[in-house]
Specification:
- The structure is a homotetramer.
- By secondary structure, chain A is an alpha+beta fold.
- The first copy, chain A, has a 5-stranded antiparallel sheet, with helices on one face.
- At the B-C interface, α1 of B face α1 of C.
- β2 of chain A pairs antiparallel with β2 of chain B.
């Protein structure tokens, strides 16, 4: 894995599951969104609140995502999510998430996010903005050897 | 549009939005999941509860999905979701969702679902099952002329 | 009913239900929050976005809520939610929600909200603020005769 | 504290917060529901899945809940939730949750749950059932001295 990776473990909750007894798939994206925050925070060494205070920007919304669901997970399962930067561009970056259960890959997802500022011409609108150079450097840093 | 389409309108709720004031993107998938239920119910002419009672099956989980987010939507926005079957296979089908706001396409998504029965060999597991022939016929029916 | 009431109908969604096949109870509060927004918007004649633009305030968070769950509801159920102001104070107001299914009361809830401005002394904190007099007048108006 | 207590820590997620930047209050109930599962599992020494397999019952739905929200919490906050049995009856039990942030009580809630079996006379309906005696004994056990 060339770029920084962050790993989290979470217990699937009853309320994240649907009447089939398995995770309601939109909630995997909520888990991945949180994993992305943790990855970005770890890469930059500051919290998301500090991020807004440090940089003149308004977030990094997802512009494209995709996922494959291979093994269902159920309430009570402890799943592992590995999230990693897989591409970093001028104003965007791509993150891959791999969620596994008992060592088997259950869900695989990748998302592209854009570094944005609010667009004063459109209420609720945003426009892309180049990533700060130090963010590029930190997002593309190789992970420290274990 | 070759196959059956269903259109719904929904008001974006405060609680569906995140601190950026726009829809938290995982919730679009929840909206699309509901749209799929409405489309399947309309195609088959029965409710999802009746579906389980009628057919010897255990649901149609999503195995793959993807989405592009082009325009953010905010609480109070009335959005239109058009959902349509775009492919129907032996044990699977693909649905496309187009969410628009003020006539402009805001989110586009497509998902593949598999008709399944519970797999008695794996707790919480499922296995694919051929679609009932009448479901194939109804999912691939051309929409009635307006 | 002395004060303004607003009634909405909503279809319970698959993704709002838990492995027991019934609504995961925290989601009733999300439904009630949306009903409160609709009631306040109706009372004041403006949208929540316009509300922030019109008044020098930062929202009306819930400070206390309670609910009784009498009849479970399931995906596919069409429920009716009647929401009404039941008390209006200097800086706070109380709303009651009655959710029914097939004419039978299924969930009853009441919440107290406070009109607030951000407290510059505490990040993320708020402090109570008197309600604008016209809001008090509109919240306590008797409903128009049918 | 007379009865068994369980304490969990959780990081507030971006997607749990609303456009005011604070937790959307219905999500506190989702956190408390999960805390209740952890408390019951700890009391009985088995998982919720095993619970269904062990006892002839269909869950312990909430029939009444209430909460007071004193201090808002924001994404990135690490909150502590202390959950404890406060009353155990013939077919019901009551749990109290105290969520604190930086040592200050932010949210206080209490809920009553009923031990139920499905009611074959009403689709989706449930009826109360006496708690198994060993559940009563374990729910009312004093916590071990630290």
């Amino acid at each position: 894995m060339p770029f920084l990776t962050n790993t989290t473990v979470r217990r699937i909750e009853w309320g994240e599951c649907d009447p089939a007894g398995i995770v309601f798939y939109p909630r995997y994206f909520a888990m991945f969104d949180h994993s992305t925050v943790l990855l970005v925070e770890r890469a930059l060494g500051i919290s998301k609140h500090q991020l807004y205070a440090t940089y003149d920007f308004d977030g990094f919304p997802v512009v494209e995502t995709q996922a494959r669901f291979m093994i269902p997970t159920r309430f009570g399962d402890d799943v592992v999510i590995e999230s990693a930067f897989v591409a970093v561009g001028r104003a965007s970056f791509r993150i891959q998430h791999r969620l596994s259960k008992d060592g088997a890959l259950a869900v695989e997802s990748a998302e592209t996010r854009v570094w944005v500022v609010r667009d004063s011409d459109r209420p609720g609108g945003f426009k892309a903005q180049p990533l700060p150079p130090e963010a590029v450097a930190k997002f593309t840093a190789a992970p420290a050897p274990a």
